[in-house]
Specification:
285 residues; 3-stranded antiparallel beta sheet; binds iron/sulfur cluster; single chain; elongated; 2 domains; 38% helix; 10 strands; disordered C terminus
Length: 285
């Protein structure tokens, strides 16, 4: 029997160093915040420090985007195209309805205003999906609307708005405004996986069980960071940096993983000032 886990990696955009890694048995939809906040901690950034996140559409979950943005992370997570609905004309899909933040209303393509009673409904996520609350918006204008056949089969069109829609809108706007950022995602996060899987031939783990696999994955990511750091600094300079490294043990977290990542990352950070980090995440195929 074969068992598969996901490996969530955060990779620095300047040096292609792995700043966080974790083997998980959950899907990507719930992984963004946990990985991003760990990456921020490993980079010794404060809450108020900005961190730009690039991730593919598997990570596009409203609750996760909301949590990341609360921690001053600028999210650039690819969004899924809205699925077409057989009986709804493309011009009447939900994205064509304009939301007004001040009045908490929507304007439809026919110019009618959809209002809400303000009641929160609960949407239970299936399997690995996240649960969330949403409100509904509708208008009496549907009863006499000449465009109704293109818009809905129900007596009134109903628009749902998730409690995380603001975070989703901010993220999607970031993607639209900065397409060049997202294009870099693959080049950043494929670098480690390309080296580890294609160059070194490490395509499966030797151990079984989540905890052991996580330990094994941490070791292989450490090896990658070690080699990468040696390539950037040269061996003698890297050794000197490690010898001169004086960690504050009060702050160093006990796990060997974090010590090793910090040990390798900090010399790089000292060498290249003004480091700007983007952290894309990718599951191991
Ligand atoms: S059916 Fe209702 S929501 Fe749709 S376009 Fe007409 S008035 Fe607007």
């Amino acid at each position: 029997m074969e068992v598969a886990y996901n490996t969530q990696n955060a990779v620095d955009d300047k040096h292609n160093l792995i700043v966080h890694t974790q083997a998980t048995n959950t899907n990507d939809g719930k992984a963004l915040y946990k990985a991003a906040i760990q990456a921020k901690e490993n980079l010794q950034l404060q809450k108020q420090d900005n961190l730009t996140l690039l991730a593919d559409k598997g990570y596009h979950t409203g609750a996760e985007l909301h949590l990341c943005q609360q921690e001053n992370m600028i999210t650039h997570v690819a969004y899924k195209e809205q699925p077409t609905v057989k009986h709804i004309d493309k011009a009447f899909l939900a994205e064509s309805f304009e939301y007004n933040q001040l009045t908490d209303t929507y304007s439809c393509p026919a110019g009618a205003v959809l209002t809400t009673l303000g009641t929160w409904h609960h949407k239970k996520g299936e399997a690995n999906e996240t649960s969330y609350r949403f409100k509904t918006y509708r208008t009496d204008a549907c009863k006499t609307c000449k465009l109704k056949d293109q818009c809905t089969k129900l007596p009134k069109r109903i628009i749902q708005r998730s409690e995380y829609q603001n975070a989703v809108d901010i993220n999607d706007n970031n993607i639209k405004q900065n397409p060049q950022y997202y294009k870099r995602r693959q080049a950043i996060c494929e670098h480690p996986f390309g080296s580890i899987k294609r160059h070194w031939g490490y395509t499966h783990t030797l151990l079984k069980g989540l905890q052991k696999v996580n330990g094994e994955m941490n070791l292989i990511m450490f090896c990658y960071n070690f080699m990468r750091t040696k390539n950037i600094l040269g061996f003698s300079k890297m050794l000197k940096q490690i010898q001169n490294w004086k960690p504050n043990y009060d702050k160093v977290v006990c796990s060997a993983k974090k010590r090793l990542i910090s040990a390798l990352y900090m010399p790089i950070k000292q060498t290249f000032s003004n480091t700007h980090c983007s952290s894309p995440f990718l599951k191991a195929a």
